[in-house]
């Protein structure tokens, strides 16, 4: 979870962006540049979404003030008519920009990239990705866009083992004994239950994509494209 400062004076756009991010992050709202700088100085902010045309201090002024003593990611929100100014904002220290009207999936992806770039190297390395999802090992969570589900420890271990060996077909015995570190007993439905729950949770996140496939008579493996 990150602290995002949203500085946007258009109430409709502001509410759309706030709704987009507040499910996973804490969003601080400012409707003017002056108010935004007050919040930035008071709160621990991880990323700023900054409109260019603002009452009080303009977006370029806010950007320069932030860059005096902070390298926090700043993503500019710009209208089509202001796009010619974007290169100057990037030179002044902006990390990225989004042109209005925007696609919410693109906004989410750009913010995710900026937040991920600020993580310590050991955390970045621990995050796993496959197709449309990200896995967060330390929290046993799987993400797809702004949606997430929490896996049980065993569900995560099963998925991680499949990811570590994407071409390998695992028999039930192999999966059970590597994850549970116990001898597999014929007829034990523990593995089947965890596999079923894992598939259901992945389908909740991304119903259009298959992640695990059963090879009848052999076992299961990661389903690649």
From TrEMBL:
The keyword Transcription applies. Residues 3-115 form the Response regulatory domain. It holds the Pfam family Response_reg. Signal peptide: none annotated. PROSITE patterns: OMPR_PHOB, RESPONSE_REGULATORY. The modification 4-aspartylphosphate is found at residue 51. Residues 125-224 form the OmpR/PhoB-type domain. Gene3D superfamilies: 3.40.50.2300, Winged helix-like DNA-binding domain superfamily/Winged helix DNA-binding domain. One of its GO terms (molecular function) is DNA binding. Residues 125-224 bind DNA. It comes from the Bacteria. Keywords: DNA-binding, Phosphoprotein, Transcription, Transcription regulation, Two-component regulatory system. This is DNA-binding response regulator. It comes from Streptococcus panodentis.
């Amino acid at each position: 979870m990150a602290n995002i400062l949203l500085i946007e004076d258009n109430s409709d756009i502001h509410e759309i962006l706030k709704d987009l991010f507040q499910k996973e992050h804490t969003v601080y709202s400012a409707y003017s540049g002056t108010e935004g700088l007050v919040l930035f100085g008071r709160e621990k902010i991880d990323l700023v979404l900054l409109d260019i045309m603002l009452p009080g201090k303009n977006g370029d002024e806010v950007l320069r003030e932030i860059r005096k003593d902070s390298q926090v990611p700043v993503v500019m929100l710009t209208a089509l008519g202001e796009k010619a100014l974007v290169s100057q904002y990037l030179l002044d220290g902006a990390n990225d920009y989004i042109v209005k009207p925007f696609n919410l999936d693109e906004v989410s992806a750009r913010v995710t990239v900026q937040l991920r770039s600020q993580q310590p190297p050991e955390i970045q390395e621990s995050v796993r990705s496959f197709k449309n999802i990200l896995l967060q090992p330390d929290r046993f969570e799987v993400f797809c866009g702004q949606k997430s589900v929490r896996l049980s420890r065993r569900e995560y271990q099963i998925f991680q083992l499949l990811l570590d060996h994407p071409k390998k077909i695992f028999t039930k015995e192999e999966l059970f004994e590597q994850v549970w570190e116990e001898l597999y007993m014929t007829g034990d439905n523990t593995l089947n239950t965890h596999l079923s729950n894992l598939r259901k949770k992945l389908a909740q996140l991304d119903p259009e994509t298959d992640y695990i496939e059963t090879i009848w008579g052999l076992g299961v493996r990661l389903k690649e494209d």
